[in-house]
Amino acid sequence: MKARRAVIIGGGHNGLTCAFYLARAGLQVTVLERRPIVGGAAVTETFHPGFRNSTCSYTVSLLNPAVLTDMDLARHGLRIVERRVANYLPLPGGDHLVVGEGRTKAEVARFSARDAERLGAYSQRLEAIADVLRALVLETPPNMPVGSGVVEILEQLMRSGGVARRLAKLDLTARRDLLALFSQSAGDWLDGWFESDPIKAAFGFDGVVGNYASPYTPGSAYVLLHHVFGEVNGKKGAWGHAIGGMGAITQAMAAACREAGVEIRTDAPVAEVLTDGGRAVAALTEAGEKVLADIVVSNLNPKLLFGRLLDAGVLPPDFRERITRYRCGSGTFRMNLALSELPRFTGAPEGDDHLTGGIIIAPSLRYMEKAYADARAYGWSREPIVEMLIPSTLDDTLAPRGRHVASLFCQHVAPELPNGRSWDDCRDEVADLMIDTVETYAPGFRESVLGRQVLSPLDLERTFGLVGGDIMHGALSLDQMFSARPVLGHGDYRTPIRGLYQCGAGTHPGGGVTGAPGRNAAREVLADVKRRRVA
Questions:
Q1: Residues 410, 300: one domain?
Q2: Which residues fall within 8 angstroms of residue 363, CB to CB, at 6 or more apart?
Q3: Domain check: are 337 and 442 in the same one?
Q4: 198 Cβ neighbours under 8 A, 6+ residues apart
Q5: 20 domain residue, yes or no
Q6: Do 312 and 213 belong together in one domain?
Q7: In terms of domains, do 347 and 439 share one?
Q8: Regarding predicted confidence, which is higher, 152 or 268?
Q9: What CATH number has the domain bearing residue 510?
Q10: Is 5 exposed, middle or buried (CB count within 10 Å of its CB: 0-12, 13-18, 19+)?
Q11: Is the distance from CB of 249 to CB of 12 less than 8 angstroms?
């Protein structure tokens, strides 16, 4: 029997993951990537002479162990190292907080003995819920009928196979925690645990990263949880760095795909998904080439797939309307800096371990809340949230000897500026503000900047297809999760068009460099092939 032909639109990490599993099962697979480099938002590029860095996505934790193992990424050259500390928070007045294994309790005790004693229970209870999520990540959501509400979705989530088994082992306290984390704000959750600002800020940052919202926005506790269920080299909750940057992950994936027989084509932007009789039959490139396929899988943001690549007339009206309402925009402003030297933070601890972690400039939940309100009113926060990583402290392949590179992940900024302003006109002004914000805590930082790459929300959309600069391909809110991601009735990676599937972060389990959506989507495609549901 002739092998089924599959075309994957978008060569990001989920597209590559999906392509690998399909090819391994015997399908003839072609990946079409718009940019000249494969990897989507997980790429490493030179941004200043002699300096290269992870251009967009910038740190490792959520990459699923099953994907790592199945694709044998280590054999294909991937090496991930753990940060020596998790986070470092410089604080006003020259103080600081270091969060890291064996250090957090003593650090927190300087601000609150009570909080230090509660850290163990907090971690244990959060980890119990994180285990539930880990069971959920590689499951396909049930395709619930249109009209189901949030309560019904949550009930179905709890009944899902892996989750149900995990829940059966949870005591009542853990079940209450699960409900709270799926419905409360990150601020309310943390206020219930701790009294000191620094530790709440350190943990609360995970509730707003990639989430254009206040830490007191209901549902942001889940975003916090979403960022803690990862692992590095088998160590749960750890964060790490891929030697060679995030592009090392997707280059290893591309190697695994080619070994499995996948054809990967770059500089091949897709203009349209062609349909015939209600089914997808080809991808039409901007150059006018028809790439015929029995199966078309999109790794794009759902708004791009359904809003730009398909004739609106082939979609059910209500589905089309729901896609127009699908919310994107994570308030992200991304920068890469070439540095002549490491920054020197006022009152920093001895040594440089603190510079290997996430350096978070956001000293309190109140600061984060004000940053969001300011961005809503003005377009960007005039006292922004800045997370800085200096990966060259762990990886000497990124910069010349004695020099360094820094990743700045900045929030909050509005996906669209008020009063008709364009990000093209404001980009450099905001970039200067971000550097000045770091300068406040690390005098001399500004002078150490040799070069910079600046990506506004508009740049992130134009370059990587991140609509509104949304790194998650859609807000992680209860109405856009699990069976409702991206639209209720199509949460199982299938679309209203026969033979057309989705495998990107706009499907379950959402954003982050996980590979899980790609793996899950491939499983559903292969199930349909086996059941002869693909003509």
A1: no
A2: 89, 91, 92, 197, 198, 201
A3: yes
A4: 89, 91, 97, 108, 111, 363, 364
A5: yes
A6: no
A7: yes
A8: 268
A9: 3.50.50.60
A10: middle
A11: no
E strands within 12-104? 28-32, 44-48, 51-54, 80-82, 87-90, 96-99
pLDDT of residue 136: 86
* Strand order across the 279-285 sheet: 270-276, 279-285, 290-292
Distance, in Å, from the CA atom of 496 to the CA atom of 489, rounded to the nearest integer, reads: 9
283 forms beta bridges with 273, 291
Tell me the three state secondary structure of residue 506: coil
**Inside any domain, residue 56:** no
For the stretch 491-524, pLDDT in tens is 999 999 999 999 999 999 999 999 999 999 999 9
For residue 171, give its domain range: 106-112+119-230
- 490 & 417 share domain: no
Q: Report the amino acid identity of residue 303.
A: K
Three-class SS state of 524: helix
Greater model confidence, 159 or 315 = 315
Task: Provide the number of structural domains found in the chain.
Answer: 3
Tell whether 461 and 484 lie within a shared domain: no
Residue 87 lies in a domain: no
3-state SS assignment for residue 528: helix
Instruction: Give pTM, 2 decimals.
Output: 0.95
- What is residue 505's DSSP assignment? T
DSSP class of residue 522 equals H
Same domain for 451 and 486?
A: no
Contact criterion met (CB below 8 Å) for 252 and 76: yes
Token readout for 126 is 């959060």
Q: In this structure, are 134 and 214 located in the same domain?
A: yes
Distance CA 277, CA 177 (A): 48
For residue 186, which amino acid is it?
A: A
SS (H, E, C) 448-473: HEEEEEEECHHHHHHHHCCHHHCCCC
Q: Is the pLDDT of residue 455 over 70?
A: yes
Boundary-marking domain end, from 468, 487, 506 = 468
Nearest to 525 by CA among 508, 503, 506, 510: 503
- For residue 67, which phi and psi values (nearest 5 degrees)? -65, -45
CA 256 centroid distance within chain: 22
Q: 215-252 pLDDT, tens per residue?
A: 999 999 999 988 887 888 888 888 999 999 999 999 99
Closest by Cα among 33, 466, 422 to 210: 466
Q: How far apart are CA 332 and CA 210, in angstroms?
A: 7
- Which of 204, 230, 256 lies at the terminal end of a domain, its last residue? 230
pLDDT at 1: 44
Q: Torsion angle of alpha carbons 236, 238, 239, 241, nearest 10°?
A: -80
What angle separates helix 365-378 from helix 197-208, to the nearest 10 degrees? Answer: 40
3-state secondary structure of 279: strand
* pLDDT value of position 99: 96
Q: Does some domain include residue 83?
A: no
Q: How far apart are CA 315 and CA 266, in angstroms?
A: 29
Tokens representing 276 are 């015939």
298: number of Cβ within 10 Å:
30
Summarised one tens digit per residue, pLDDT across range 344-356 is 999 998 888 999 9
